[in-house]
């Protein structure tokens, strides 16, 4: 069952479709892609924009834009020190988004693999007493780990290859425990 949507955290408009490989034009490199020959994300590379980018990624994931949320979190992940728990946590979020893409592509094996890896990354973060995902990201690793394990266990049930602009398939939403500083893009 798909849960109701929480309030939006960002004001940036959503793309006209959620990219699913083989179903839609690639957003960046495909002619007709929603970001083709566009540098709208140029300002998002600045670390001061990362909280807003995180909120945008949550909105994108919650609304079924799994590839787009993956891309937003990947920007944050690339800027993190690779061996930190911050990087592991964001990589777990990326894996959850990738599981959504795999569900739309019809790959229960992909859903399971990405979800299990996400759960392992969140468990790794949870074991590190120096890292508190709630303080930085507003989300606990325990909640995400549980969602990832449930997703892996029910991978076949969330598969949906219906050709449509956007389809929510993940049976959870992410709702941070604190409000964003300013709801912006």
Draw up the topology in text.
Layout lengths: L49 H13 L3 H14 L5 H21 L2 H20 L5 H5 L3 H13 L1 H4 L27
- Following the backbone from N to C, one meets helices and strands in this order, namely HHHHHHH
Oligomer class: single chain
Number of helices: 7
Shape: globular
Mean pLDDT: 87
- Total strands: the figure is 0
| Low-confidence runs | none
For the largest beta-sheet, the strand count, sense and barrel status come to: none
Q: Please state the CA-atom Rg, rounded to the nearest Å.
A: 16 Å
Q: Terminal Cα separation, in Å?
A: 29 Å
Description:
It is a single chain. The protein has 7 helices and no strands. Helix 2 (66-79) runs antiparallel to helix 3. The mean pLDDT is 87. By secondary structure, the chain is mostly helical. The longest helix has 21 residues, at 85-105. The two termini are 29 Å apart. It has helices at residues 50-62, 66-79, 85-105, 108-127, 133-137, 141-153, 155-158.
């Amino acid at each position: 069952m798909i849960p109701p949507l929480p309030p939006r955290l960002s004001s940036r408009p959503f793309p006209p479709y959620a990219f699913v490989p083989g179903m839609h034009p690639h957003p960046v490199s495909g002619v007709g892609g929603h970001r083709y020959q566009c540098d709208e994300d140029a300002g998002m590379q600045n670390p001061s924009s990362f909280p807003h980018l995180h909120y945008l990624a949550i909105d994108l994931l919650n609304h079924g834009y799994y590839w787009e949320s993956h891309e937003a979190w990947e920007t944050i992940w690339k800027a993190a020190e690779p061996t930190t728990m911050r990087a592991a946590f964001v990589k777990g979020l990326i894996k959850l988004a990738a599981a959504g893409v795999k569900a739309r592509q019809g790959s229960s094996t992909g859903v399971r693999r990405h979800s299990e890896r996400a759960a392992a990354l969140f468990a790794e973060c949870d074991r590190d007493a120096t890292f508190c995902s709630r303080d930085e990201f507003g989300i606990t690793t325990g909640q995400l780990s549980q969602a990832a394990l449930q997703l892996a266990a029910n991978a076949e049930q969330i598969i949906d290859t219906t050709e449509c602009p956007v389809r929510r398939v993940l049976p959870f939403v992410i709702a941070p425990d604190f409000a964003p500083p300013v709801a912006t893009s």
